[in-house]
Amino acid sequence: MARPREFDIEEALEAAISTFWEQGYEATSMDDLLNAMGLTKGSLYKAFGDKHNLFLLSLQDYLDHLFEKMKEAVDSDSDPVQSLNALMSLVEELCCKQTTPRGCFAVNTVVELSQRDGKSGEILKKHLIRVEKLLAKLINNGQESGDFRVDMSAEHLAESLFVYIFGMLAQSRGITNQARARRLSTFALAMLQAA
Amino acid sequence: MARPREFDIEEALEAAISTFWEQGYEATSMDDLLNAMGLTKGSLYKAFGDKHNLFLLSLQDYLDHLFEKMKEAVDSDSDPVQSLNALMSLVEELCCKQTTPRGCFAVNTVVELSQRDGKSGEILKKHLIRVEKLLAKLINNGQESGDFRVDMSAEHLAESLFVYIFGMLAQSRGITNQARARRLSTFALAMLQAA
DNA sequence: GGAATTATTGACCAAATAGTTCCGAACAAG
DNA sequence: CTTGTTCGGAACTATTTGGTCAATAATTCC
């Protein structure tokens, strides 16, 4: 009954994510987005609403995909040590195996926007909580298998591991160095292992 | 011989730092700065140049003060463990004992700007290096006194400690929680101590 | 007091910003 | 083929952006 959309909405969103990811929210203009997404204003506004709404959609989409990847990494092996290794590989990838040193969109947004924009803050908070829970679950498994230290609760160890990962991702915007990322990953693993 | 400046330049710079610190570079307008600094455009441009230059001056000033504070913390005690404690107290303060959860201006800028603005990137890189060296020195002292582990070089341990601190400061923009910060600090210390 | 010098002020500007509206064209369903 | 809908795209608007400048004011030296 009606004319079908001519562009792939998921593809366009991917382009928006890339743009926001690299430049941040404030530094990205509608023009940047239109170029990257290959749309004109009318289409964009009709499909995604205004800039802020597009940002929220981009952020949510990114977070969901990222979380999916993290779960995959964690579930990739029944051995907790191997799971953690897979997870840290993902982090290393974000740190220094990208075309541009854009770090992690989630981390970038926490720093740039979360406390100035309530909506973003809410979305991110939920994400941070589920990630930390995922880490806690992984660590708990490792404790039960005897691979990880048991002198602290899985939740508290997860807290520290998460902060460490967060630091790697944040710092990767300033320092890009593959060997360093490798060392940091190794240290993270050692940090959790039983004595 | 000439009309004297009516405002305190250091005070004005402090106001600029606060504004950039809380909002970031892009989200801060000249109007915000003028209000915060209590100046009119002409005066600001005469005294500090354009917005970008004012930002660089603010950043440098902040970094120098911060580094000074860090050195004081490190030198506050001859016992390396106490020194590290003092340093982590400083970090905790930045994390959750401020009027607004603004984290650390340096960390915020690394994430927001360092890879898009060469000048900021340069300034920050120099700072990051000197901070990491300071940490390495502190850790080296602790290794010689037998307090810190010696299974890794001071440089590599400093790398990890720095990333951890970086993570605390970055995450503090999204999660503000004093008890958590305390636990994280304690963990950082434990991470370095000899078995 | 007058000259020289510098700071302050506020009006002004050009460019870019986000966001809106409108219309002809394209398309699907009946 | 008609009709209803939604598309793409351009033209438009109102606001905000960072930035300039000439007139005015304050100070010191001579």
UniProtKB/TrEMBL annotation, chains A, B:
Top-level taxon of the source organism: Bacteria
The entry's DNA-binding region: 29-48
This protein's record includes keyword Transcription regulation: yes
Positions of the HTH tetR-type domain: 6-66
Record keywords, A-Z: DNA-binding, Transcription, Transcription regulation
Keyword Transcription among record annotations: yes
PANTHER family: TRANSCRIPTIONAL REGULATORY PROTEIN
Designated name of the protein: TetR/AcrR family transcriptional regulator
Upper lineage: Bacteria, Bacillati, Candidatus Melainabacteria, Candidatus Obscuribacterales, Candidatus Obscuribacteraceae
